[in-house]
Amino acid sequence: MKNTISKGWLSLLIVMGILILDQIIKIAVKTNMYYNESIRITDWFYIHFVENPGMAFGMQVIPKAVQTIGRILFAGIIIWYIGRLIKANCKRGYLICISLILAGAIGNIIDSIFYGVIFSQSTLSEVATFVPIGHGYTDWLYGKVVDMFYFPLFEFNWPGWMPFIGGDNFIFFSPIFNFADAAISCGVIILLLFYKKYFSDSIHMIKNDLKSKLAS
Q1: Burial class of 59 by CB neighbour count within 10 A (0 to 12, 13 to 18, 19+)
Q2: Exposed, middle or buried by CB within 10 Å (0-12, 13-18, 19+), for 35?
Q3: Does any domain span residue 13?
Q4: Residue 50: exposed, middle, or buried by beta-carbon count in 10 A (0-12, 13-18, 19+)?
Q5: How many structural domains is the chain composed of?
Q6: What is the DSSP letter of 177?
Q7: What is the DSSP letter of 149?
Q8: Enzyme catalytic residues
Q9: Does residue 147 belong to any structural domain of this protein?
Q10: Average pLDDT, whole number, for the chain?
Q11: Residue 205 falls within a domain, yes or no?
């Protein structure tokens, strides 16, 4: 029982800590910077304020409202999965990975659900402000996700002799992302590097457990 409680609290603390930091950063950027404004920290690190309507790193593959609802369902499944992991006395490191992914998912869900109704529009000439609920720049579920971390580590022009891309400018690393995106990425990378087999085994264990309960 002691281990179950401690792992439950560990997961909760990770999720809440990341959510608080993520929202503090996003709100600070959104209420103090113009859209597309950039603050140079170093030659390879900028705070660059943009917004996107899509998933992590700005990807958009399905309608926004459907995407937001899908995110909520995904987060609900992860919460259920974490509960099963805690009861099964899973490895602490693996629980941390899944908690990072959950925290990142919820962080961007908050933007999508609430930001459109509590903030005015961010533009090139106006900084967003808090507004009465329902008087924001869009409706519930249609809020844009705030991104700000930009790491152009290096850039160069492709040689002119290369087909299709010759002479084009290339920047590494060009995506602009937020703290929630970073949490998801870290969780996935650590999982793939150290817990890939454990992930497969845990899914198999849960499937067998569900089958036995349905059969009984």
Answers
A1: exposed
A2: middle
A3: yes
A4: buried
A5: 1
A6: E
A7: E
A8: 147, 181
A9: yes
A10: 91
A11: no
